Structures are given as structure tokens and as C-alpha cells.
Amino acid sequence: MKMKTILSSLRQRLGIPGVVQKAAAPWNTFAGTVGTTGARLVQPYEHSAFVQAAVRMIAQPISAIPLRFYQTRGPGQGRGGNGQIPINQGPLVDFWARPGGDGMDAQDFWEATIGWLQLQGEAFWIGDDSWLLSTVSQRNPLVLARPDRMRPLMEKNVLQGWELTDASGNGHALTTDQVIHLKFWNPYHPVRGLAPYLAAALAAEADWLGSKFIRALMENNGDTGQFLIAKGAPPTDDQRTQIVRALREKKDLALRGIFKPMFLTGDIAVENAQIQAADANLVATRQLLRDEIAIAFGIPPSRFQARQSYSIGSASDRYLLIEETCMPLSVKLAGAVERLSERVPSWRPPWNRRIYAAFDWSEHSTMQAARRERFEAMEKLWTKGVPLRTCSEVLDLGLPPTPGDHLGYLPITVAPVPAYAPEGPLPPIDFSQPTDWTELEASFHSAFRNRPTRSLSSNSTR
To answer: Do you find a cis peptide bond into 26, omega within 30 degrees of 0?
Structure first.
């Protein structure tokens, strides 16, 4: 059954029109979650500094490096037809230079995709009806849909398609061939993804509330309200109103920088609340919450700490972030690019060779620093006689072949002094018997004394 027939039957069964060719804003651009109500943190990317920093620490290194394309070697392009050759031009490269169209370049597209994965656990790339037609050579840009507007269409527990609700409330039926679904593994749902932010939501909200509490203290000049203690007879209503009015007047003046003394008559004591500033306990609690947010997103907690200098080598936390969080995520993104590329015949090279995509981490400064460390290790191996070609293969340096790189070299810099070098073989040593080192040393001295020697001057003239 052709794709157009499948799409038409799906629309008729669900009674929903197809997606339009030109998707309208705002659901094709990156946006935060829904609005804020009450004291709940429902816009974490906007209102939590640590959540936004965590997402950007993961997204920006990936979006800043180039995406490379390769194809498998065909007949006559290598021994056995193995290996990969780069693709540097063509419709595939041109499309991924701006996959989101003129309003979104490649960096914005990757940053938005990674942002949705971190905050919602999934991201959706949608192609319009032209993506289902094999005769079309040029495709319209991909639509980056909001995950909260995508609903799976299931039939007998099998995914049949997706329903997209646009900003106007209209529903659009999409086949699985029109949707590239990127997600993190979710053990609680067979289709939807599980967001790393959900594990950090409690810590992010608690830290946000702590920040609001500190702001309230500073707005009120550390005044959280006094306790009025009547030691004798309780004050009357008029006295109580007068005291409260005097305390409010004093507070208003203090906010304007005017500190006015106040006198109370009667047997009344005024005590301030215990917390008047952010103490050490509050600061320590926020640090623990900050570390919890970092761990949930797969970021070393030290990345949220202020430092005078930062290391970028293989022993740094920055390298740990790149290798254990950013690189695995870039592999997932490259896999989605390959899945989409397999659906476009015009992108495939001759003989239907497979297309591979990969983010080029070799140009990142952290990986370059780690590469320099491997070159230092290569120098140590090469001086021990290991061939240069073997060093490159073991350390994954990718050095080009050079003449003689299969040979090992040893620096011969240790030799006996010619004036004291004995002629003829030295006395044999019987290693089967315990060695008397004193006797052995005496025998060597005797051998040196009983052998003719050459002078340095005579040796140098030869």
C-alpha cells in the first residue's frame, strides 16, 4: 500500500484533516512550558537559573560543532568495499544546514531539540505531506513540534500515528513516516519519553522557593514581622490597633532608609523573628539542591561552582560532561538524522549505499586537549620501539600513513666507554647457583685489569 493511501485511510478513520504544508507559529519554535500559577514552578527553563544552565551546558557544546555525513564505499572504492567516505556537498548537506527553515538555523534547531529532550523527555520532527512523495526532490523544512501537543494514536496497543494539535486547536493526523520521534527511555510508558527534569523537579522548585524567600527578606529589610508579648493585662483593641499602626509606619520608613525609634507604653515586649537574613543553613541547603539538579541532568556538580580557573583536559569535569552526557546524546541525534535520511531517495548516493551522520567532536577544545595528551603518550611509546602506525591505532589518533611508520626505532644513547671496554667475552655467570656478589664483582675487576685497553686518544684517531 502506498504512503498516500495509508495517510488517507488514517485520516478517514480518525476524521482529522492532514497537516498543512506550511506550519504556523508558535508550535514550530522552542518555547517554555505553560504559565505560572501560585507558588508552583511550572516554567523551570525561565525561572530556574540552574535548570536553564544545565540545559545550555548540554545543548550548546553539541549545537556548536559541525554535523558530518558519510557514505559506505561502493564497488571499486576500497578493498572489500569497506570503510566510509565523506559527503561534503549535495541536497543532504544543504538541507541540514538549515533544517528548520529560514526562521531557524542549525544551531537553534539543535538547541531547541535538545531542550525539549531535557525538559520533556522527547522531541518531534514533523515533515508535511511532501515528505511522503518519493518523486519530490526538495522537501519543506522540518517542523519542531511541542511534545505536549502530540498525542499517540494507538490501535490494539500498536502505534498507528500521531495527532498534532496546532495553536488554533485544530487536530492533524500524521503517519509514523511523517514523524521522527526522539525520546529517552521511559519504563512507565511504551511510547512517550521520560524527561531528566522530572527527577530534578522537586529540587528545582525547592531552590526556586528558597530564592523567593531570600528576595522577600531583602525586600522587607530582613523584617519578617515582630512578636508582641503582653506581660500584664492584654491590650485593648484600640491599643492593639495603635501599636500595629506604629510598627507599620516604622517599617515603611525603614524601607526608605529612615530609621525612627519607637516607644511603647505599658508592659509590652517586642521580639523579632529568628531568621532575618540568609544564614549558613539556608545557603548549604541551596547548594545541596543545586547539586541534585546537576546530577539529574548528568552534569558534574562542580560545573555549578565558582572557580578561578577551569581545566579542559581528560582529567577535568568538563571532559566528563562531554564524554558521558553530550557525546551519547549526539549519537542519539545523529541516529535520528540517519533515520530521516533513509526515507528520502534523493539524498541517498548511487547503489543505495547507506548514509551515516556524526557530530565532529574532534574540533571541540576539550577533545583537542585530550588529544594532545594522547600525543604525549604516543611519544613515550614510540621512544620504546613501538611503531608509529601501532601507536596511532592503539591511541585512536587517526594519523595518515607515512613511509616507514611500520618500523620501530630505539634511541641508542647508552654505550660503554671505549677506554675501559674489555676485549673478548666477559666471564659466564651461572644463574642456577646463589650469586656471591662480592666474588662476582672481584672477578669483573680482574677481567678488566687483565685485558689490554685502548686509550681515548688512539680510539678517536681511528
So the answer is: yes
